[in-house]
Every structure is written in structure tokens, then in C-alpha cells.
Amino acid sequence: MIKIFTKRNVPKRVLMLCFCLYLGFSAYAQTPAVRGVVKDAKETIVGATVVAQNVQTGVKTTTSSDKNGVFTFAKLVAGAYKFTISFMGYEGKTVTGEVKDGGTFSLSVVLKESSTSLDKEVVVTGTGINRRKDSFTGTTAVFSGEELKAIGNNNIIQSLRTVDPSFLVMENVTAGSNPNVLPIIEVRGKSSIPSATLKDQFGQDPNQPLFILDGFPTTLQNIVDLDMNRVASVTILKDAASTALYGAQASNGVIVIETIKPKPGELRFSYTQDFGFEMPDLSGYNMMNATEKLEFERLSGRYRAEESNPTQGVYLDTLYNKHLASVMRGVNSYWLSEPIQNGYSTNNSINASGGDDSFTYNLGMNYKTGKGAMKGSGRDSYSGSINLTYRKTNLNINNITYIRGNSSTNSPYGSFSSFVNANPYYEKNYDQRYLEVSRRSNGTALLVANPLFDAMQPQYNKASGSEFQNNLNVNYDVTNTLRINGGLQVTKGTTVRKVYRSPEMSDFINTPTLRKGTYSDYRAENFSYQGNLMLVYHTVLAGKHVINANWRNTVSQEKNASYQSIAEGFPAGNLGNPIFAYGYQENGSPSAGSRVYRTLNTTISANYGYDNRYLADAVYRLDGSTAYGSNKQFSPYYAFGLGWNIHNESFVKGTAWINSLRLTGNIGITGNQNYGNTSSVSVYDYNTSANYNQFGQGVTLSTLGNPNLAPQKTRQISTSIDFSLFNNRLTGYINAYDKKTDPLIVPVDLPSSTGVVAFPYNIGSLTYQGLEAKLTFFPIYNLEERITWNIGITGSSYKSKYGGFGNVLSTLNKQQENNKTLLRYIDGNSAEAIWAIKSMGIDPATGREVFLTKNGDYTFDYATGNITNVGNTVSVVEGVFSTNLRIKRFSFGAGFRYKLGGDVFNSALFNKVENITLSGTALNQDKRALYDRWKNPGDIAQFKGISQTDVTPISSRFVQTEYSFTSETINFGYNFDNAAWLKSYGLTNLSFNLITNDLLYLSTVRRERGTDYPFARTIAFSLKASF
After folding, report:
1. DSSP 8-state code for residue 261
2. 499, 502, 505, 509 alpha-carbon torsion, rounded to 10°
């Protein structure tokens, strides 16, 4: 402890003089004063936060260092104090001291730059504009790389869904755990309608957030492939105040990833190995065994001849007896086990860093290989990076070079559903093209393809990609208050995808011989650059007024080009060499596409804080983009926010149980331009056919652009209250938001006389309103003994509503109806609504379905005019229960996702219990098709008569309310830090982690999950050694 007081061993005359001065100046008071300076290894630090906390009373007094790095506490009550000094990008420091009456002292504090540690009180925006959280009015969440990797070591997307309630990874019931399918991500809902006609081949999911890696935009694929061992922190920017810096790209939120920065010192080397197992999860499947399936076929009438063809009865009896004989001799094939395997993944990561005060370096490499839950599927990726930093006086230069690559293969077994549908009374074999060659009850031929035969044929479905990227950042401090920042990113990438399907496969049963077999070759290239220049101003006036101002300008261009050719007609036995093709696809030819996408923007932002109590943020950005209509190429965006640090008010400082209490609110306009850039320009195709132009070559209009197309704009209002109570044992926040995107961009069909379809048009609005909360409590919080235990819960609830469409989208809604989708675009209804006809159940007397008309009448007749809103896929509340325990070097954590309410359309009931045609009876079905369907008059059943093979329309009978519980993560860890035996092996640290993901899934709805590719349970290990 440092004792701080005035020395008493001074001459008596001096003491007498001081006594006289004391009598002469009545303003003099014997109040202790503290004065200090904050600096790093080279210079003073402006704007560092200094908190003086009285150890006995817990009262905190806060100030900040001025332009000279000096801080002052003019009046402090005598007693023991803890001084905490912190600044973004530096490791915090705490000094204890005893302040006595009449004492003054000068304290010099030197902060060290932080490279691997994460200050969660610092918000990294990715633009070079960073803020301390207690001086920022935006809603954000910050997580360390170590925290995310403890949850799962596959990718950061998997982990982010567990720790933040606003970051939702939507369940993909079709693709399951397919490693070659990107996740669908939403942050606080959608800001665009899901329409493929608005997205060109180079566009992105219009509701996907923007990803920033080390200060520059990147793709979701790069984030999924990113080595988690290189991640220092991830920041989620959620509302207008935090995302308006990105203007037209910010409506869906921004995810900012920072990698580990090099730091000076001797050479440090680390090696990490991650290993994981994947076990297919087939718990959602409820298929019949051989006995049940044959009985179902009998009851459904597969072996009953039609009255118009009675002679067919003998054949059908013979066929039934043949299948019965197979069942009697014990044939009961479990086809679901054939295409699956226990997958695995390995990741080897190497990192080396070092340097001195002027020059630091960090070299990283990793190679990841994985085999999926289906045989033959997998994904490999590699990456290398060189991070160099040069510092000298006022100049800081940082350059990061990335080299990335990947290769992927899809399973030759095709869709998992083809094995789910295989009849269990068929014996498995790899040699026969068909499992059965027979006739239906109406006498027509029935060929049942053998999925194992198809899987053994020569074929491939593979892709590869590579990318080179260089990021350069330069900072120059003109003065202590003014900085110039500049950056340049250059990216070059290629993608190749090849697909070959053998002419022997069942796809081509009814295809002419010279067209059997297909080969597809797709190649794409991209080149992009982005440059930015920014002025940064920071000053502290009178020790209380903190002012930050920034002016940033950015220019970017992205060029994309693609080429695709499809050949068909291959001889039997060909291994996929395209030179043996008979020709291009019928009525087709090679195709090519290109796109040039440019942006230009300028941004002005300012932040003001008074006495660390009252805060204000303002952002204005003018965006120009070729994605907009040619007549409206520039659009403004803005945000304004206010904040109040209530804990720094005098009437709260004396309250010992309040450590932190913040209230913030903001409003702003952001944009979304993920839909590509061809919507605003007309596209023409060459046409040389004489049927169209007898004079030779001509052009035809393929897409009509809208030169007046305005960008989608989202007005966001957000409020938040953050708190930390009872000596930081209880922490949390509650956020509320209102998002309204107006106008939307919607494809509208013009009158048929124009010949124009899917014309991009500004119309309608989409509003999201929601709440999200997080609460963490520490029953045990003993940092000195390194023993902590916390329990927490997150929750999210939101709703949406369309508006302003009128009848303009009637054609689009009709297309949805014809395609038998569950979506509609109707005013006053949710974007997640399920549309179907209201069902009153099955009539016990007839086994037919009874519908409810919009007039409230009961009817057996289905009419599309009675389709209505029958459910909503959004859960009433969704979140995660979590607990984390740390005892010395041991750690344990668990997270369990809960979903309360929310409706799902059960496609297993719709396709495998009903809607089973005569041809469909030859495929395996859900057990409920046998046990739960109506059979005799008077039966009370959920599903209509078992012998009815007519089409069942989409109705509310197939919509079910779901409550689910998932063990999203369970993890154990042990860290041998500072263990005496490490040095003898040349180690500085050694750690081990065991992680499980999705081991348990419980739901009130029995449905098939992963119809094309099954879901998987994961167990992973991680070992890290530092030298």
C-alpha cells in the first residue's frame, strides 16, 4: 500500500509561516488532493479514465486525463483508496493508497498496450472510431475470443448465438449440419423481403448482417472459415447509434471481429490443435418398419385393383405376397444408416509473434479439415496471415496480409430423404438399378430407384476457392488532440464449382440416351478495393468536457465476373471428363455474367461527454452507390443518441449496492443494399435467332431497371438500461427497439401488355418491435482465490408487421399460393406469419377434412379464398440459460437454449402422413400414417381416411406450436498456467478443453429435421501450448 501524506519533518519557521498563511486565507481547507499523470511507454495519454474508490464507503469519484495526460482529484475524503486507471487498447492498472488530511501527492501511471486481453468496456466499431462503453450511447455487446471458443471451437457464428439474445441463427430444417451450407443469420429481425428475383448471382442474403474483419468488410464464408484461435474480440453493433457509421450497409446490424495484435517482446510461439467428432442426429425420424409399411400399403389400397381393370387384381395379389414373404423371412432394412457416418474435424493452428517497441510482427497459419455427417461430404480450409506493425514517435503503420483457400465436396449419396423414403422390406444392394419394377393398381409402370446404386456411380460435386487480401492502416498523430487515419484494402479471389452426374443414375430414367448425364462448370472471379481517410479529434476541457469528432471518407469498387457451361449426354462408364459430352444442354449455351459495384461516402460523427455523466452521440453519413437508381445515387443516413451514467451522480455515489447504472436512447436512419446492383439498370441479351430478327443479330430486354429506385431505409429507435449491482455480483441489461424499413424494394409484375415481370419497385414497409434482456448473477465471486460461479439467462421477444402494400403485391401473393408456400405479403400481418386455410379437424363420420370459411361456415370444399393467417414462426420468448464455474485452473460452462411458443409447419405430417399418392405408397412413410389416420366411421382421428390418396391442401392441421430445449454447449477446461513443471519443457502455458454442442434436443413437436442433410451432435477437444 502507498501512504500519501505531507512530510512533517520541516523547520519550525516554515511551519510558522504556513500557519500565518492559513490564518490569512480563509478559503484554505485541509482537504486531501491527488494529482497524477497517465502515459504509455512513449507519451502521455489523453482521455484515460481514472476512478478513485473509497475502500470503506465504496463511493467512487471519476475523472479523466487532460491533453497533457494529467488528472486531478481536488477534494477527497481522507481514507484508503483504490485508484483504477484504464484506456481503450491498454491493460488497466489499479493502485491502492491511503489519503490523509492535508496530504497531496503526484502519481505517475504507465499503461501497457493490450494485445490478447479484452477490455469489454471498449466498443470497437471497426472504422477506427473506438469508444469506451460508458461514454457511448449505442447498444453493443463485446465478447472475447477465448470466451467464444470455450462455447464451441468450430466457428464464431456457432458461439455468438449462445451469448447474445439478438444474434439468431435460424434453424435450417433442410440443410441440417451440412458443412457446405452457410448459416442464416438475423440480428433484430429482417429489413427486406426474401425475394430471389432482387438478388443477382453476386449478391448476399438481404437480411444478413455486415461483417467487418480488422477494419474492413468481409464475407460470411470468410468468417465461418476463420481460425478461432486468432480472434481477439467480437463486437455486435445493434442499433442506429452504433451502426450509422456504416450507413447504407447497417440495417441488419454489424459484426466487428478483431484478430490478435502483435506486441513487443521476445519470440513467442503457440500451437493449438482442435479435434471434433460429429454424430448424426436421427431422433426426429419416425419411419415405419417392414411389417408396418406393408400393412399401411394394404389398408391404403395399393394392392386393390381398380374397378375398370379387375384383371389387375391377380398381379397385385402376387405382388403383395412377394412383399409379405420378404417381411416373413425377416427383411427389415434400416436405410437411414447407409449414407451417414461419424464425421470429424481437425484444426492445426500455429502462431508466432515478437518484436521491439518500434517493430512488431505476428505470423499465423492454420489448416482445417473436416468430414461431415454424410459419407463423402466435407470441407477443408487453410489460411495464413502476416501482421506487421511499425511505430515511431507519432507514426503507426499496420499491414495485414491474408492468404485463404478452401475445398469442399458434397455427398455422392445425394439427398438424405431418398434413403428415408426407401421401403424397409427391400433388401439393400449396390448392384441393381431399381429396388422394384412393378405396376401400380391402375396398371401403369412403377420403377423404384435404388439410392445405393446411384451413390456408387461415377460422379462428383465439388468446389474450391482462394483469396488474397491485404489491409493497410496508417495513423499519424499531428498533435495530442488530432490524428489522421488512412486505410486501403485490396482483395482478389476465385471460385470454381464442378458437378458431374453419371448417365447411369436414376435422374435420367426417362431422358433420351444422347442427353443422359450432365456436367456443370462454374467459375467466378472477384477483385475489389476500398480506401478510407479519416480525421480524428479528441480533447478534454476543464477535466469534465470530453469531445470526440471524426470525419471519414470511403471509396470502394468491386468487380465480379462469372462463366458457366453445362454439357449433357455422356457415354456409360465416363468418369466426368467433359470432352466426351455430346453437346451443350438442350436449347442452352455457355453463360457469363459481370458486375461492377461502386460506393462513395462521407461520414461525420461526434461524441460529447460531461463529467462522465451526460453523453451525446451524433452521426451523419452521405452514401453514394451504383445499387441505387441512376436518378437517386446518393442518400443520407444519420443517428443521434443520448446517455446518462446515473451511477456517477452525487445522489447515487453513496449507494454502495449500485456499481453501475446507465440509461441510453437513440434514433436514426440506416440502409440495406445487400440485394445487388442490377435492380436499378436494364439488362439486355444478344439474340441471333431468325425467329426474332430476320436481319441478323439483335438484342432483347431481359430485365427492366428502375432508374428512380430509392434505397431501402430503416428508421431505428432503441433504448437500453445497463446495470451492475451488489459489488458487481448482479449484472445485466434490458433493451427495447423499434425498426421500420420504409420503403421496401419489392419485385412487382407490370401489366401483361408490357411483358415485364419482377420490376423492382419501392413500396410498403416492414416494422419490427422487440425486447431483449440478459441477466447474470454471481453466487460466488472470490477473485483472490480465483473461484467464481455465475448463472445467467438471456431472452428475446419480437414481432413484425407489413404495411403500405395494398393490392400491389397480389400477383406476388398468387405466385406464393401456386407454389404452395406459407408466405404472403399482406398489410397488418407478420413477415413470419404462416398462411393456410383454417381446419376444424376430421369428420368422424366420413374421414374427410372440415374447413372453416372466412364467413364462419363449415365446409368440405377447399377454396383458396379462405386462406388466412394461422400461425407465426417466431417464438414468444427465446433465449439461453447458462452457468459458468471457475475453480483455480479448472473451468466448467453450460448453455441451454429454450424456445417458448412459436409455430412450425410440420412437413412430415403434410408429406408423409397425408398427401400420399398411389405412387407414394411405394415409399416409406411416417408411423402416424398407419396409426393416427381415420379408418372406420366414428373414429376420432387427427388425419383423414387412410385409403384417401387425393391431394390434401395446406391447412392449420399441420401447424403446431413448439416448445423446445437444447443443450447448446457443455464445456470443461483446465489451464496449467504458472505450473512449475512447464518451464522444464520450455512451455509458458498449456490448456485443455472438452466441448459438446447440441447433445440434447427436446421438442413438443415430432418432426423431421435435416431432410436433405441430417443434423449432428458434436464433441470436440482443444489443446493449446505456448512456448
Report:
1. P
2. 100
Lowest-confidence range among 307-316, 513-522, 888-897? 307-316
Architecture field, domain 122-274: Beta Complex (2.170)
24 pLDDT exceeds 50?
no
For 65-213, strand residue ranges (E) read 70-73, 79-86, 93-99, 104-110, 122-124, 130-132, 140-144, 167-170, 184-187, 210-213
Q: What is the 3-state secondary structure (H, E, C) of 960-1004?
A: EECCEEEEEEEEEEEECCCCHHHHHHCCCEEEEEEEEECCCEEEC
User: Are the C-beta atoms of residues 591 and 546 closer than 8 Å to each other?
Assistant: no
Helix axes 312-328, 290-300, angle to 10 degrees: 160
What percent of the chain is modeled with pLDDT above 70? 91
CA distance linking residue 351 with residue 340, whole number of Å: 35
Q: Give the span between the Cα atoms of 284 and 1002, in whole angstroms.
A: 10
pLDDT category of residue 676 using cuts at 50, 70 and 90: low
Q: Do residues 721 and 646 lie in contact, with contact meaning Cβ atoms separated by under 8 Å?
A: no
Confidence label for 115 from pLDDT (cuts 50, 70 and 90)? very low
The residues, any chain, with a CB within 8 Å of residue 631's CB and separated by 6 or more, are 707, 708
If you ran DSSP here, which 8-state letter would residue 162 be given? Answer: H
**Cβ atoms of residues 751 and 766 within 8 Å:** no
Mean pLDDT over 857-867 rounds to 91
Q: Do the bridges between strand 216-218 and strand 210-213 make them parallel or antiparallel, or are there none, so unpaired? A: antiparallel
Of the listed ranges 444-458, 723-737, 814-828, the one predicted with least confidence:
814-828
Contact between 975 and 991 (Cβ < 8 Å): yes
Cell numbers placing 322: 412377394
pTM summary value: 0.85
Angle (nearest 5°) at CA 279 between 278 and 283: 140
Within 8 A by CB and 6+ apart from 1000, the residues are 965, 966, 967
**pLDDT (tens digit per residue) in 375-407:** 999 999 999 999 999 988 889 999 999 999 999
d(C-alpha 742, C-alpha 500), whole Å: 45
Task: Output the nine-digit C-alpha cell for 965.
Answer: 430445449
Looking at residues 956-971, what average pLDDT do you find?
Answer: 95
Q: Could you tell me what percent of the chain has a pLDDT over 90?
A: 55
Q: Which residues of 938-968 are buried (b: 16+ CB within 10 A; e: fewer)?
A: eeebebbbbebbeebbbbbbbbbebebbbbb
CA angle 395–399–403, rounded 5-degree value: 180
What is the three-class DSSP state of 355? strand
Which amino acid does the sequence have at 800? S
- pLDDT band for 591, please (50, 70, 90 cuts): confident
Backbone angles phi, psi at 143, to 5 degrees: -135, 145
Residues 6+ apart with CB under 8 A from 143: 118, 120, 159, 160, 163, 164, 233, 234, 235
Domain ranges for the chain, please list them. Answer: 2-110, 122-274
Question: CA 583, CA 94: separation in Å to the nearest integer?
Answer: 75
Task: Name the class of domain 2-110.
Answer: mainly beta
Q: Report the sign of the C-alpha dihedral through residues 326, 330, 333, 334, in that order.
A: positive
CA distance 719 to 622: 25
- Rounded to the nearest 10°, the torsion over CA 509, 515, 519, 522 is -120
Residue pointed to by grid coordinates 394392392 = 303
Opening angle at CA 854, ends 848 and 857, nearest 5:
50
Given a contact cutoff of 8 angstroms between Cβ atoms, the answer to whether 294 and 323 are in contact is yes
Terminal-to-terminal C-alpha distance of the chain: 34
User: pLDDT at position 822, please?
Assistant: 82
Q: What is the DSSP letter of 250?
A: -
CB of 402 within 8 A of CB of 385?
A: yes
How many angstroms separate the CA atoms of 672 and 744, rounded? 10
- How many Cβ atoms are within 10 Å of 982's Cβ, its own excluded? 17
Give the Cα separation of 82 and 96 in Å (integer). Answer: 4
